[in-house]
Specification:
328 residues; mainly beta; nine-stranded mixed beta sheet; seven-stranded mixed beta sheet; 5 helices; 11% helix; globular
Length: 328
């Protein structure tokens, strides 16, 4: 089955879907003919100088998501006013962008099947496509590793971008994290976000800044806390204190909540400390309530993060929390 036929099938699926994202009950596993047409003849990753190896967290693509030095993009939130979801627009050429949710709790990036043709995505594999299921939300639909030749963020280009295209028609479901307007066509997870020198989310100004190689210096007069990131791969996580207990805490920009805990807690959390940042009297949810996985790691969501200008510094493995507002 050739690529043209695959794209034709994609176009047909998009036409059937229409302009509006269908409700979650319309998530349907793909029939065998569509699975074979799009994922059945994967391209050898060595064509793109990409090496794939297996890990406990799924396939790892080494050499993907390449940037050119000295580039920067400042992008407005595409989510509606009053919604703190960090949704931005990006596209294959920049002239036909699609909405993407920036999710710092997701290890991988994800794509709706209907928009994979628009993004010119092609399955990757030596003999078969590499598949995995999400590890950060409850979702059992397989996504297959695909490559996009490039993804354009305003004037910043990323090449050989790896995303997992869902083997189902319809919306992203839990991957979209209940962001309905606009419903994201894709999710940019940490496999992409960690390639930038820094990623900044200014929730008050509703701006996302992405840089390919520039270093970040926080404003000393506005800096509240500089907290070391625990890992160099995977979701963004820090060490913190929750009501006096030391815990690993995932920073979850995709989640519309304050804090999510492994177990139910009676009453509000009295104090959360991330370095010098102190948060008090926070209503807790359980991870199960929010359909989050695994059910063992505390998460702080954007209801708290959105109070600050948050910068993920990938050069120094540090996250900065600054007071929002204009420079003094």
């Amino acid at each position: 089955m050739n690529r043209n036929l695959a794209f034709s099938l994609m176009a047909l699926a998009a036409a059937l879907a229409g302009c509006r994202t269908p409700p979650s009950e319309y998530i349907k596993p793909l029939p065998d003919d569509q699975l074979k047409a799009f994922f059945g003849q994967p391209e050898d990753p060595r064509r793109y100088a990409i090496t794939i190896y297996s890990s406990d967290d799924g396939p790892v693509f080494v050499g993907a998501n390449r940037l050119h030095p000295g580039q920067q993009a400042v992008l407005p939130f595409a989510s509606r006013r009053g919604d703190a979801a960090p949704v931005i627009e990006a596209g294959p050429k920049g002239d036909n962008p699609l909405p993407f949710l920036l999710d710092t709790s997701s290890r991988e990036s994800w794509q709706r099947f209907e928009s994979a043709g628009t993004m010119r995505a092609a399955a990757l594999g030596t003999d078969r496509a590499y598949g995995t299921t999400p590890r950060h939300v409850r979702d059992d639909i397989v996504g297959y590793g695909c490559i996009m030749n490039h993804l354009v963020f305003d004037t910043l280009w990323m090449e050989n971008v790896v995303t997992f295209v869902r083997a189902a028609a319809g919306p992203l479901g839990m991957l979209g994290r209940s962001n309905a307007k606009p419903g994201p066509e894709g999710v940019l997870g940490c496999n992409v976000l960690r390639e930038f020198s820094y990623v900044q989310m200014d929730f008050e100004a509703r701006l996302v800044t992405l840089t390919s190689s520039l270093a970040y210096r926080p404003n000393a007069e506005r800096l509240i806390a500089a907290v070391p990131l625990l890992d160099k791969e995977g979701p963004y996580a820090v060490s913190g204190m929750v009501d006096g207990k030391k815990m690993t805490i995932v920073l979850d920009t995709g989640g519309d909540f304050g804090i999510a805990m492994p177990k139910m807690t009676m009453g509000p959390i009295k104090q959360i400390s991330l370095g010098d940042l102190v948060l008090r009297d926070v209503r807790p949810y359980t991870l199960r309530e929010r359909n989050l996985m695994p059910e063992t790691t505390v998460r702080i969501g954007r209801q708290l993060l959105a109070r600050y200008k948050v910068t993920f510094d990938n050069l120094h493995y540090t996250v900065y929390f600054e007071r929002p507002g204009d420079e003094p």
